[in-house]
Amino acid sequence: MLIFTPMQHGICLLSAVPCRKEAANTSEMVTQLLFGEQYSILETKEDWLKIKTAYDHYECWMNIKQHHPITSAIFNQLQSQKIICSTNLFSMLTHNEQSFPISIGATLPFYINQQLNISNKTFVVEGSTNSEYNKELSIKKLLQTAHLFLNSPYLWGGRTPMGIDCSGFTQLVFKIHGLKLPRDAYQQVELGSALNFVEEAEAGDLAFFDNEEGKIVHVGILLDNERIIHASGYVKIDKFDHYGIFNSVTKKYSHTLRVINRVV
Q: Which residue is catalytic, options 67, 177, 218, 255?
């Protein structure tokens, strides 16, 4: 039974929560909530919540067992807090003498002096952090972050080093450095300005690729106008030119270039 509810909110207090296309464990995972990310509840269906994520306004379903409620006041406060895990692939949180890992890119609500307090829970953070406030985006640092993900396995809907998809990879790398990207490649292509020629491409530009129907299906970050780092099978660096991505193992083009956008 589908139930529409007044606007309620929640926060992810687990390492990562799978979010699905439909209200079922067998439905495909379309994204993940990382620790500290917030959401609004749109409707309920048995043991499932349809949510809209606060970070990228993505609509999906999460299991109610993984829901942690917060008030509207706390939800609104958190929209201006931007402290995140930054340089370690995984940091550790300790709560009630129990430790668990959280992924790079996780959000740390109400963070002060290596601690955060949320809903009467106190967590101690072991790991480096980064504030998005008043921080100039350094392309060099952005690419250093991207390299941290090398060899992370591809996972449809994934947003952690344990499994990540192409647009989750670009979104997370840019999130760590204070630039917000939408969740999916076809949404990300709407940002920035398109370049006319591959030769104009610079490090940090986003390259988008389409399928035979012309739909944007892949995205990666350019290291220069000849190399790209992207998630395809796993996060790796491939050769790149005006045709697309060239796989040096198969000696074939794996993705067809559609457009290059400069977003920073």
A: 218
- Higher pLDDT: 158 or 6? It is 158
60 annotated active-site: no
- Which residues in 91-107 are b (16+ Cβ under 10 Å) and which e? bebeeeeeeebbbbbbb
Is 230 labeled as catalytic in the residue annotation? yes
CA 66 to chain centre: 19
Q: Which of 166, 177, 242, 255 is catalytic?
A: 166
State how far the Cα of 201 lies from the Cα of 227, in Å rounded to an integer: 10
- pLDDT classification of 261: cutoffs 50, 70, 90: very high
- Buried b / exposed e along 173-197 (16+ C-beta atoms within 10 A): bbbbbbbebbbbbebbbebbeebee
CA distance 172 to 33: 12
pTM metric for this prediction? 0.93
The rounded mean pLDDT for the chain is 93
CA 153 – CA 231 distance, rounded (Å) = 8
Does the annotation mark 166 as catalytic?
A: yes
